[in-house]
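Summary for the steering committee. One of the milestones for this cycle was to obtain a three-dimensional model of the protein with NAP bound, which we needed before selecting residues for the alanine scan. The sequence and ligand used are listed below.
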Amino acid sequence: MNRSIVLKNRPKGRPRQTDFLFVSEEKPVLQAGEMILKTKYVSVDPYLRGRMNDAKSYVAPFELDKAISSGVIAQVTESNLAEFSMGDYVYGMLEWKEYQSSRGIGLHKVDGDKAPLSAYLGVLGMTGLTAYLGLSEIGRPKSGETVVVSGAAGAVGSVAGQIAKIMGCRVVGIAGTDEKCEMLTSDLGFDAAINYKTTGNIRKAIATACPQGVDVYFDNVGGDISDAVLVKINQFARIVVCGAISVYNLTSLPQSLSVQPFLVRNSALMQGFIVNDYAAKFPEAMQILTKWLEEGKLNYAETIVEGFDQIPQAFIDLFDGKNKGKMVVKIAGTQ
Ligand code: NAP
């Protein structure tokens, strides 16, 4: 049989196991113009939480009782398509199913000899592109500037901070455990890291870590952490609004800082973005990220959880900060 994971309930607040249901169905049978894919690695991402609400957004909500989808690396087991052969690995937005058929639309091949397959879900995938394009297109850091990254030990944040270092900046990361902060400063080259859960006074901690103020803020979390950074911005600061995970599970709008006076006073720019806004720049960005990886200028962390049945929990765990770097689920039988 073939297992799939469907959205059973729209989560209220923090997602729970009971919001997901495992369903058994027949394995797909190869048809003309199709191939059969076996899932190997599944990406779980905070943005999927938004798709679980029945609300208008930049991507359509998931439908109840239908399989959830996300970035997946799969292997071709049978193919009637000229462009894809048995054994090829592909990346694309695919369903949370052990096996599925596909016409190949929107999928592209990935080379497991050039980089570990899981990297195509992280540093060489959507989150790496988000870090690079958000920073280079909106943050535009200049050498010598101070860049603060929240969610700094996660998939996007850990890459964004390293890119800012490559660009010659002083980089301060904000993360939720001492172990994550240690990874940022010891392994990933950040100049300073703040544990927002234990620091006591986050504003004071930011002031200490950023004696010259903040020129670029790469914001992955929103909420109180971002309010604390915003009061320290410099003239002509750029605030890259990448995500706001601290509010994704809230059921009512939070009270937050009135940002306008800080933006006006500092002639600052605050801009949200979706990585697909920059789709035309993906090939160029991929080349740069690959080169930095090969040169050893860029490192990456990943948390790999094993087992198809662990996908919902791995997703839920993002909201408890259980991951360092990219959270990926490896499916049994994958090398
Ligand atoms: P991630 O950072 O790898 O994982 C989520 C992390 O968020 C957790 O490890 C946790 O780390 C932190 N977190 C969870 N709840 C939090 C809270 N209440 N306050 C502060 N931190 C919290 O995830 P990611 O894939 O790299 O995504 C990071 C952000 O970028 C998300 O907001 C996501 O939606 C956004 N994003 C945007 C785009 C785009 O196109 N704009 C693309 C990809 C991702 P701690 O232990 O540090 O709390």
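Key point for the committee: The two ends are 22 Å apart (CA to CA).
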